[in-house]
From TrEMBL, chain A:
It is an enzyme of class 2 (transferase). This is histidine kinase. Residues 160-378 form the Histidine kinase domain. SMART domains: HATPase_c, HisKA, PAS. Residues 82-134 form the PAC domain. Its EC number is 2.7.13.3. Residues 23-80 form the PAS domain. InterPro entries: HATPase_C_sf, HATPase_dom, His_kinase_dom, HisK_dim/P_dom, HisK_dim/P_sf, PAS, PAS-assoc_C, PAS-like_dom_sf. One of its GO terms (molecular function) is phosphorelay sensor kinase activity. The keyword Kinase applies. It comes from the Bacteria. GO terms for biological process: regulation of DNA-templated transcription. Keywords: Kinase, Phosphoprotein, Transferase.
TrEMBL record, chain B:
Gene3D superfamilies: 3.40.50.2300. One of its GO terms (biological process) is phosphorelay signal transduction system. Keywords: Phosphoprotein. PANTHER family: RESPONSE REGULATOR RCP1, RESPONSE REGULATOR RCP1-RELATED. This is Response regulator. Residues 19-142 form the Response regulatory domain. The keyword Phosphoprotein applies. The modification 4-aspartylphosphate is found at D76. The keyword Phosphoprotein applies.
Length: 378, 142
């Protein structure tokens, strides 16, 4: 037996006797010319039955009707091979999930002479994969419902806590007012005692605000789930409305306000838009630089697909580190102004809940610029 | 602020206040409300009850002696045994109680709009957020 002969017979035996993969060859038209044991085992056709048949009989009926077998031959020829994981049909009509590789074969001169096809039965793997995916999906759903429950619990907890906290806190406030009146009536209210009473009332008020903010967060959460009533709002109108609230007598200087509303109307929740504008403008005023006149510029313009609200100030500004923490809950960078540090957290949440985004640019000593992007296509 | 003006609007025909009933499970609130009433000179007699049931029993006891029911009632919402809503339901349905001369104010720490809506389903004279202050009381009485 010469070496060449043994190599050829080895090749043919090797292919013929592979049992776990169907290996067969076709001519250029897809007519089966070679059929191995594995093909017989996987597909159910004997060699005698298969040879001479169009290989499309191995596809599910609807694939045959849709011309898939021919398309796959063309794709293999065009791209050098065709690989897929897909359904294939056995002789008895049953289907199995297969990994298939269809490769064109050429003679020594480069002439296309046919195709080889290797098909593996991976139904078991697919079943396992499907089962795994199903398990993952149900685990995910379980986790999700747990999360929703936790969120609800948290909301309920915050609500109850804020209610239960508010009652004794307002009671202290009322008691302090009574005490102050009693002291005054008894002529016992001097500068010292009055200051103490005022400081207690001040602390109580701060605590009340914190509690109100907590309640506001849960409200926001509920709103996002229940979809706020969106309406067409007039930017100028809302601006004028908040100006009235901003004009409270404070220790700080008045600011020069410049407005340029290129977009006059906006579709959004009125309540939330007011809150966003109020927070940004009041922050700009609050964090003004004492050494220069405070200027706040408020602009709107269109930047498809967004309406952009810009609030720019020449105030204290922020370091990059501060900017990173800007939108977290209860974060305040300066203690010379009132506030609980919840405003920007809520602004961000309101904007993002409605599909928008918020950006900030700031430099210490120069000022800050906030840009709120409202979706214009809603 | 909203509550105050709403209250003010309803206080048109003012009856002289002789008796007041304060219903709150927190003793400190009963004390504060009582003191504010006394300071403002509102009510010759101030009763307190710690829940809706006590309040209902008190009112029925007064009605049984043919005495006049309180002209003013301040009632909290969240209370054990019988809460403010249950009290409103029972009191306004009770054939024994003629509340035509009584103004009922809900006085609560609740900030839930739902609570206000629900309370407004009953014939109440106003919904006040705690704390009750001298100014708010005056705006109710005047």
């Amino acid at each position: 037996m010469n070496l060449l002969h043994s190599k050829e017979s080895l090749n043919s035996y090797f292919i013929e006797q592979i049992k776990d993969y169907a290996i067969f060859a076709t001519d250029t038209k897809g007519i089966i010319t070679v059929w191995n044991k594995g093909a017989e085992r996987i597909k159910g056709y004997t060699e005698a039955e298969a040879i001479g048949q169009y290989y499309g009989i191995l596809h599910p009926d609807e694939y045959q009707q849709a011309g898939h077998p021919q398309h796959e031959l063309e794709a293999a020829l065009q791209n050098g091979s065709y690989e897929a994981e897909d359904w294939r049909k056995r002789k008895d009509g049953s289907l199995f999930w297969a990994t298939v590789t269809l490769t064109p074969i050429f003679d020594k001169k480069g002439k296309h002479i046919g195709f080889t096809k290797i098909t593996g039965n991976i139904t078991k793997q697919k079943e396992l994969q499907d089962k795994l995916a199903e398990r993952q999906q149900s685990a995910l759903e379980h986790k999700n419902s747990e999360l929703q429950k936790t969120n609800l619990d948290l909301d309920n907890f915050i609500y109850t806590a804020s209610h239960d906290l508010r009652s004794p806190v307002t009671n202290i406030e009322a008691l302090m007012l009574l005490l102050k009146e009693d002291l005054a009536e008894a002529n016992a209210l001097n500068d010292g005692t009055e200051e103490i009473v005022q400081r207690v009332i001040g602390s109580v008020n701060r605590l009340k605000h914190t509690i109100e903010d907590l309640t506001e967060i849960t409200r926001l959460h509920k709103d996002s789930e229940e979809n706020l009533s969106v309406e067409i709002i007039n930017v100028q109108e809302v601006y004028k409305d908040i100006l009235a609230d901003l004009n409270s007598p404070g220790k700080q200087k008045a600011c020069f306000m410049q407005t340029d509303f290129q977009v006059h109307q906006l579709q959004f929740s009125r309540k939330n838009f007011r809150s966003i504008l109020y927070n940004l403008v009041s922050n700009a005023i609050k964090y003004q630089a004492p050494e220069r006149d405070c200027i706040v510029r408020i602009h709107t313009h269109l930047e498809e697909p967004y309406v952009v609200l810009r609030v720019k100030d020449n105030g204290l500004g922020m370091t990059p580190r501060q900017q990173g923490q800007l939108f977290t809950m209860f974060k305040r960078f300066h203690d010379h102004v009132d506030g609980t540090g919840i405003g920007l957290f809520m602004v961000k949440r309101m904007v993002e809940n409605a599909g928008g985004k918020i950006e900030v640019e700031s430099e210490p000593g120069t000022g800050s610029e906030f840009k709120v992007y409202f979706r214009a296509d809603m | 602020m909203e509550e105050q003006s709403a209250v003010g609007a309803k206080a048109e025909k003012v009856q002289p206040v002789n008796t007041v009933l304060v219903v709150d499970d927190e003793e400190n609130w009963c004390f504060v409300i009582k003191r504010i009433l006394q300071k403002a000179g509102v009510g010759n007699q101030i009763f307190t009850a710690n829940n809706g049931l006590q309040a209902l029993e008190k009112l029925k006891a007064i009605a049984a002696t043919n005495e006049k029911l309180p002209e003013l009632i301040f009632i909290d919402l969240k209370m054990p045994v019988m809460d403010g809503f249950e009290f409103l339901e029972e009191a306004t349905q009770s054939p024994e109680l003629d509340l035509s001369q009584t103004r009922i104010f809900v006085l609560t720490s609740s900030m839930l709009p739902q609570d206000k809506e629900r309370a407004n389903e009953y014939p109440i004279a106003g919904f006040i957020s705690k704390p009750l202050t001298h100014q708010i009381l005056t705006s109710i009485i005047s």
